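explain this.
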Amino acid sequence: MSKFARVLLWSLALTLALSACGIKGPLYIPEKKYPQNVSAPHNEMHAQLHQLLVNS
């Protein structure tokens, strides 16, 4: 068997194996069970920290 055919067969087998894994559909995080904390963006946090340092 040629090297090209072997690589092709391994690629096909790997593709089929990986496509059969996982949940179908979009990924999501259930909000009731795992609520998400919304944090301030990095720039706002930096500005608040700067204000604290300047005022102290």
Observations:
- DSSP finds two helices and no strands in the chain.
- Residues 3-19 form the longest helix (17 residues).
- Helices lie at 3-19, 42-55.
